[in-house]
């Protein structure tokens, strides 16, 4: 079985030709992957569901929230609007900058974005957040047991952790985009742990178990996220994945090397069209995810 893991190693043409740019050579590959594209282009389709996730959390200030793998603030901004004091942490510098720009434009002074790695939240004090939220964010960090421990460490006793994670082999959009893409990408380095395992119940229980959380305190439910745009077609949406979403960009680069990029594009567009529920010209694509709630 080929999972998202197959997509998440760098396969840049520079590397293959022996010309590794100095910045990438010294860079954490996880960071390089997410800085490679511009996730804000995809996040623009996610705002509606980001707000819905925040509404479902029942935010009642005063509340300190950590949004981990926050991107440019799809959930951090509605959290701050709901009255929480929010710290957004993300590994990608360009997304942290974009988030701080959006916060300033929105006049949200109790929201700050900063660079950091979910595997090691150094500088973040123990027990400092009432809620740690991570929507398709921390799942992409390479050391899942460390991530679970860090999320538990920084969350207050009596607080909660909420994760949104994609599910391996789910028939809906994102899992299928990743599955198609992985078929066009060379296998990952040995020892690589697929981020998609954060969508599997036994792995979730094991990871939080090792962080000291009993399984009775972990609940999991399947939920639906929507990618929505009134004016961009599903084909245009796929082009954004190909140009701006690190994992798909890697698949496109690999496919170009063996002349398969047209076939990759065809399969992705066919998927997006088949899953699009919009009756108009735009895009409205549902995607199933695993919503995990951990009570501390
Ligand atoms: C699919 S995007 C989701 C972004 C945002 N949560 C949203 O819903 O729009 C994944 C995010 O996780 C971030 N990320 C990946 N690995 C990370 C790590 N080790 N630590 C912190 N953030 C990470 C990426 O930079 C990216 O912003």
Architecture overview:
Residues 1-24 have low confidence and may be disordered. Helix content is 40%, strand content 20%. Helix 11 packs across helix 12 (246-257). It is α/β, with parallel strands linked by helices and 296 residues long. A 7-stranded mixed β-sheet has the order 3-2-1-4-5-7-6, sandwiched between helices. It is globular and about 55 Å long. Bound molecules: S-adenosylmethionine (SAM). S-adenosylmethionine is lined by residues 30, 34, 39, 43, 46, 50, 69-71, 74-75, 90-92, 95, 117-119, 135-137, 140-141.
Q: What percent of residues are in strands?
A: 15-25%
pLDDT below 50 for ≥5 consecutive residues: which ranges? 1-24
- C-alpha termini separation: 35 Å
> Into which percent range does the helicity of residues fall?
40-55%
Structural class: alpha/beta
Main β-sheet, spatial strand arrangement: 3-2-1-4-5-7-6
Shape: globular
Give the names of the bound compounds.
S-adenosylmethionine
Write the layout of secondary structure elements.
Blueprint (H helix, E strand, L loop, with lengths): L12 H4 L5 H4 L3 H8 L3 H4 L3 H10 L7 E5 L7 H6 L3 E6 L2 H13 L5 E5 L13 E7 L8 H11 E12 L6 H11 L17 H10 L7 E12 L4 H11 L1 H12 L3 H15 L7 E13 L1
Parallel strand pairs: 1-2, 1-4, 2-3, 4-5
Antiparallel strand pairs: 5-7, 6-7
């Amino acid at each position: 079985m080929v999972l998202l893991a197959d997509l998440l190693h760098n396969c840049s043409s520079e590397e293959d030709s022996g010309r590794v740019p100095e910045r990438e050579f010294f860079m954490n590959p996880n960071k390089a992957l997410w800085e490679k594209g511009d996730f804000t282009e995809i996040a623009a389709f996610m705002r509606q569901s980001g707000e819905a996730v925040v509404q479902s959390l029942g935010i009642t200030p005063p509340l300190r929230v950590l949004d981990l793998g926050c991107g440019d603030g799809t959930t951090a901004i509605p959290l701050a609007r709901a009255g929480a004091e929010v710290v957004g942490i993300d590994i990608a510098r360009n997304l942290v900058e974009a988030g701080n720009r959006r916060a300033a434009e929105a006049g949200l002074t109790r929201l700050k974005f900063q660079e950091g790695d979910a595997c090691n939240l150094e500088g973040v004090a123990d027990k400092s957040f009432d809620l740690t939220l991570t929507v398709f964010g921390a799942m992409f960090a390479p050391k899942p047991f460390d991530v679970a421990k860090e999320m538990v460490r920084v969350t207050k006793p009596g607080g909660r952790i909420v994760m949104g994670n994609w599910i391996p082999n789910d028939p809906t959009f994102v899992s299928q985009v990743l599955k198609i893409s992985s078929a066009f990408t060379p296998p990952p380095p040995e020892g690589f742990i697929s981020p998609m395992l954060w969508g599997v119940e036994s792995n979730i229980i094991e990871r939080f178990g090792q962080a000291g959380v009993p399984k009775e305190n972990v609940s999991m439910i399947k939920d639906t996220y929507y990618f929505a745009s009134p004016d961009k077609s599903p084909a245009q949406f796929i082009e954004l994945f190909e140009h701006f979403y690190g994992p798909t960009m890697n698949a496109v680069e690999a496919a170009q090397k063996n002349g398969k990029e047209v076939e990759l594009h065809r399969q992705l567009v066919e998927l997006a069209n088949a899953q699009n529920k919009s009756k108009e010209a735009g895009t409205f694509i549902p995607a199933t995810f695993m919503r995990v709630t951990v009570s501390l």
